[in-house]
Structure formats: structure tokens, C-alpha cells
UniProtKB/TrEMBL annotation:
Superkingdom field: Bacteria
Any one biological process term the GO annotation gives: phospholipid biosynthetic process
Cofactors demanded by this protein: Mg(2+)
Pfam families (alphabetical): DAGK_cat (PF00781), YegS_C (PF19279)
EC class: transferase
Annotated InterPro entries: ATP-NAD_kinase_N, Diacylglycerol/lipid_kinase, Diacylglycerol_kinase_cat_dom, Lipid_Phosphate_FormReg, NAD/diacylglycerol_kinase_sf, YegS/DAGK_C
Gene3D superfamilies for this protein: 2.60.200.40, Probable inorganic polyphosphate/atp-NAD kinase, domain 1
Entry annotated with the keyword Glycosyltransferase: no
Organism, scientific name: Fusobacterium necrogenes
A single GO cellular-component term on record: plasma membrane
Protein name: Diacylglycerol kinase
């Protein structure tokens, strides 16, 4: 039987994976796979999940949220592991898993993986950290960290908008500089995004992004004044903000440097803490094998 390393977070998504363990194992065994599980916990270093991985494994199955997926992708890349990844969405937002069409129904997602094909997709890299979905800093990162998980679960993307509008009057804009072959910008930024995927907090922010074009999508909300910023946020709700941008800059690049004024401010990478300024961001074309 073919081996699959199954790395799962039992705490993600109110324990949805634990409730579906038998379904997952049954689906895989029926298709001729042997599941080798690794349970994520505070007592064991996640690195231990990779000690026995070699070419005898068909793929790595990950069940968790965006942060769990990010940690595992970084371990895969830093350990030069070249076997495919498959994703079972089990977190709060599950932005990238949803982008590639994975259902919140675990049985449906298993079926999709087991009938899917191995494809190569791009990855982003900020200094020495990889991201599959989004690298960001500014207001959105701040409100994402401040918004309670329960509120995110109950209200979804509306929770981000409510908290974002509440924080607008007090949030200090950043002075940033972006340098790339395609674009140069020096000025204000309220929110800065770099997308490989399309959504953050289930908000369809970068709907023109592709995961196999060798480019990242950069979106800057300048925040020149509160009125224009609120209008921009309303355009986000209607997915119109990239069509006739007023307070927004959008461009694509495979390699750029970004600097911001608050040198103690952490960036965010797929829900995990990212590097601080200055940050060299690149697109790693075909950087990951994934099944979907």
C-alpha cells in the first residue's frame, strides 16, 4: 500500500478533524493508502513529523487552518522535501484551501483529493519565510489579530469590516517604499497586501490573482482620508476595488523590496508572524506540488 503522512491539528475548527478521523482513514484505505498520522501538540515539535519522510510517501495530507498549513509548507521547503501536499480545511478562514476548491465538508474534500491530480503552483517568499496565500501588514493585519475567533466564526468577513471601520480613526498610516522593476511607490499605506491566493479572512481581495503565473499581486490601500478609505472598503465588499481604484494601488511583480516606517511592526504571513522591515519578497514559480 502507498504511504501518506497525515499531519493534523486536533484543535482547529472546533475539532472538526477529530470528529471525521474514521471517515478520512476509511476513504484512504479504500483507495489503497496507508495513513501514517502525526498529531500536532504543544508537547511535540512539528519538525518531528518529517523525520521519516522519503520518496516512499505518495503525499503529505494536512488538516488544519491557514497558520498550520504555513508552518508545514515552510518545513517542507527548508527540508527540501519534494513530495505533493494535499489540504483538508479545518481552520477559521481556510482561505487558500477554499481557493483551490476544497470543501468544508471533510468527506467531499477527501474525495476531491483522492480523485485529483498533482499540480505545480507558485509560492511567495518574504525574506526567508514562505507563504502560500498572503503576506500583509497594516490595518488588516492588526484587526485580524484583534478580532476574536468566535466573532470570526459567527460573522465571517463582516467581523473584519466592523472591526476595521472601528479602528480607522486611531490607526496610524505607515510611510512605505516599494521598489520593483514594474513599479515604484513611496508614500502612505493603511493596508499592504501581497497575494499568491485571492482571499484573506474570506474577503475576495485579490480576485485577479493566479497561482501559476509566476507573479504576486500587490495591493496597497493608501488611506489618504477616512472618507476615501471607507469607500474603498465598500468596494471590497462588492469586489469592485480593482476595476476603478481610487484609494488603491494594484500591480503584479515577481520580485520587490518593501520598507515601512515602523521598524518594530511585525508583518503577517498566512496568519503567522512574518518578518519586519525591510522585506525582500519573491515569487517562487512552481514552488510547490499540490493535489486538487
Amino acid at each position: 500500500m502507498k504511504k501518506v503522512k497525515f499531519i493534523y491539528n486536533p484543535f482547529s475548527g472546533e475539532g472538526i478533524i477529530v470528529k471525521n478521523l474514521d471517515i478520512i482513514i476509511n476513504k484512504y484505505q479504500t483507495k489503497g493508502f496507508t495513513i501514517i498520522p502525526f498529531r500536532i501538540s504543544n508537547e511535540q515539535n512539528l519538525k518531528e513529523a518529517f523525520f521519516d519522510i522519503d520518496n516512499s510517501y505518495h503525499h503529505i495530507l494536512v488538516a488544519g487552518g491557514d497558520g498550520t498549513i504555513n508552518q508545514i509548507i515552510n518545513l517542507i521547503k527548508h527540508n527540501n522535501i519534494d513530495i505533493p501536499l494535499a489540504l483538508l480545511p479545518a481552520g477559521t478562514a481556510n482561505d487558500f484551501a477554499k481557493y483551490i476548491g476544497m470543501s468544508s465538508n471533510i468527506e467531499e474534500s477527501c474525495n476531491k483529493i483522492l480523485s485529483g491530480k498533482v499540480k505545480k503552483i507558485d509560492l511567495g517568499k518574504a525574506n526567508d519565510k514562505y507563504f502560500i496565500n498572503v503576506f500583509s501588514f497594516g490595518l488588516f493585519t492588526d484587526i485580524s489579530q484583534k478580532t476574536p475567533t468566535q466573532l470570526k466564526n459567527n460573522l465571517g468577513k463582516l467581523a473584519y469590516y466592523l472591526n476595521g471601520i472601528k479602528e480607522l480613526p486611531s490607526f496610524r498610516k505607515l510611510d512605505i517604499k516599494v521598489i520593483s522593476d514594474e513599479f515604484f511607490y513611496e508614500g502612505n499605506a493603511l493596508i499592504f497586501f501581497t497575494f499568491n491566493g485571492r482571499t484573506a479572512g474570506n474577503i475576495n481581495i485579490s480576485y485577479k490573482s493566479e497561482i501559476n503565473d509566476g507573479l504576486l499581486d500587490i495591493i496597497i490601500v493608501k488611506g489618504d482620508n477616512i472618507r476615501s478609505t471607507i469607500l474603498s472598503l465598500l468596494e471590497f465588499l462588492r469586489s469592485e476595488h480593482l476595476e476603478k481604484p481610487k484609494d488603491i494601488i494594484h500591480f503584479k511583480s515577481s520580485d520587490f523590496i518593501v520598507e515601512y516606517s515602523d521598524f518594530k511592526l511585525n508583518s503577517d504571513i498566512d496568519g503567522e508572524i512574518g518578518p519586519i522591515s525591510p522585506i525582500h519578497v519573491t515569487c517562487v514559480k512552481n514552488g510547490l506540488k499540490i493535489i486538487y
